[in-house]
Amino acid sequence: MIKTKVTAKIIAEQLGLSIATVDRALNKRGNVKEETYQKIMQKAKELNYKPNKLASFLSRKEQFTIAIVFPEYPVYFWEQVEKGITKAFNELNDYGLDVKVFKIPDQDLTRGREIIQHIINSEKVDALSIAIGDDPFVELIDYGIVNNLKICTFNHDSPASRRMFYVGSDYRKIGRLAAELTSKFIGEKGEIALITSTDTTYQAQEKIAGFREVLKEYPNVEMVGPFKIDRLNVNHSMDLIKNSLDGLSGIYVANAELSSIARYIEKLEGKRVLIGNDINKEINEYIKKGIITATINQDPVNQGYLAVKKLFEHLIEEEYMNNKELITKLEIITKENAQFYI
Amino acid sequence: MIKTKVTAKIIAEQLGLSIATVDRALNKRGNVKEETYQKIMQKAKELNYKPNKLASFLSRKEQFTIAIVFPEYPVYFWEQVEKGITKAFNELNDYGLDVKVFKIPDQDLTRGREIIQHIINSEKVDALSIAIGDDPFVELIDYGIVNNLKICTFNHDSPASRRMFYVGSDYRKIGRLAAELTSKFIGEKGEIALITSTDTTYQAQEKIAGFREVLKEYPNVEMVGPFKIDRLNVNHSMDLIKNSLDGLSGIYVANAELSSIARYIEKLEGKRVLIGNDINKEINEYIKKGIITATINQDPVNQGYLAVKKLFEHLIEEEYMNNKELITKLEIITKENAQFYI
DNA sequence: CTGTTAGCGCTTTCAA
DNA sequence: TTGAAAGCGCTAACAG
Fold first, then answer.
1. Residue of A48, A125, A184 best to disrupt the B interface, most CBs of B under 10 A
2. Chain A residue nearest residue B342, CA to CA
3. DSSP 8-state code for residue A144
4. Which CATH architecture has domain B171-297?
5. The domain B61-169+301-328 is classified under which CATH number: 3.40.50.150, 1.20.120.140, 3.40.50.2300, 3.40.50.1000?
6. What pTM does this model have?
7. B269: Cβ under 7 Å from strand D?
8. pLDDT (tens digit per residue) in B156-211
9. Shortest alpha-carbon distance between residue B70 and chain A (Å)
């Protein structure tokens, strides 16, 4: 049995209409008599018509440009995000997508503002994905939205803004998972230090809050800290809290200094559970050595991928998302499954 | 600056040639004078020409059919695999892919042989993905290969056959990861029971071997078992080993009866670490209750997706894979990240 | 409201 | 060894 593909042409022929009319009906572009419209739609359903995306895109010859803005630090994390961006680009380039990547030098929010401002004003971009933020960016995002840009945030949300959607982790859940893992690995009894960074971001706050929430479920586990570590001077910061670390069963490192801290911990006496976030080669080495017990991965590749892909789908109106949150999954990495993430 | 897309036409114009000649050169289809060929290739590189996949597929009008054969049991696992298959189908249907799904009734290898035999003889299929196996299927696979079918295995390999590649877990690694997790969760000290099924498959053997390997790294952890559980009579089988379970710190369930066993364990006195494989709603409930500590996920959706996608890429000769293994990742699921997998 | 026509970028005859 | 022409399935003027 030969299966003839059902195309708009087939429908047109069977109904004695022109392809143009069929096309107008199928795409609800109006200018079709109600009666004809019904006939076409019915025939389409009857034959199980599926429009061919390739042909559609090819003939429409639209071009879309998505700009994507994110920080540089920590490098290993954003490199993985960029892999996902590249993956989405390769997948969608033939469909008319162009992607422009802007990396913001470490912590330079002013530069970030300038770049975004410039992108909006250039009017050469259809959509924008932003991973820097906190409050000062809300008005900038809204300004872009008013100027007809489609904007989403990723990795780092600005919920107060009018961005269309957010792609990334739920940081409270990271904290929750960290608390669960650390508690279970220390045998649900003992003290856990929470280490964070000197700058108190919303994300860091959320992690701590989540951590505390879950610790309540473990009556014999206590948290000490949070201890703030200066990322430019990890060893010194650690020296300052060294005494507090004695007798602890576990440590959760909520900032990006996991490997430096692992290096420091390695030299200390005694064994303790060490949990952190994300992964790179260095972290992997400490996992192999048993210094780091486990790490929580934010699926950075997928974050980059979705930040582009979902925006593109939004642009072509395939999926319409307004004020949604696309929470990416949290993966637990230990010695025996680290190979899959590195 | 307006970026003109570089198409074969542009190259042709700039070189004063016809599109046909340019196309022949670009696709190395011969019948082009060496000199002309060089000119074209150089120009293509100079302009950074990238062929448009959509146009290429549309004009080539090839159709491919992939058949995919897998068991029904355990249902929740194969449902997830099927989701991945559907995802790949939806993604590639416009490119000319058709997928035919064959589910083999529980354990009925004879039926499996018949179906595969029939698929091969029908000559209506270009490629075949098989997830049932062990030795008796080797000659069947080789027969298909001889008959010009592209064949891969997934989830369940037949390494002795001439299949082009395998997509799925490394079962030894599952066992290894299970041992690491259980050991760490029990505080690296105590006895762990390993529960498996009555039929001794290669996969089960591998898991056990991996489990033993890693336990050696934990001097204070001992394994008891493996205990074989009859899946049609879980409670009875459990009753038989109930006494051995007293005083154990942990249990690793390597078969597909995790939720039944969790239900049984729930009623026992005392608390122990319980680790298993895969996830469904019922398993998730026991994770939430704290009966199941963690479970190891084989990424079934991705297995189904890749089993189709990679075969398709092989068919269109985009990626040529011979005798390769595509090992899918192992994910650790606990209470606080289970929501992402259900 | 409907149809005709040209064209997206590439592939494939067929003829020169 | 090269080129002209038709066509994949859909869309977008434009004319009627």
1. A184
2. A329
3. H
4. 3-Layer(aba) Sandwich (3.40)
5. 3.40.50.2300
6. 0.94
7. no
8. 999 999 999 999 999 999 999 999 999 999 999 999 999 999 888 889 999 999 99
9. 25
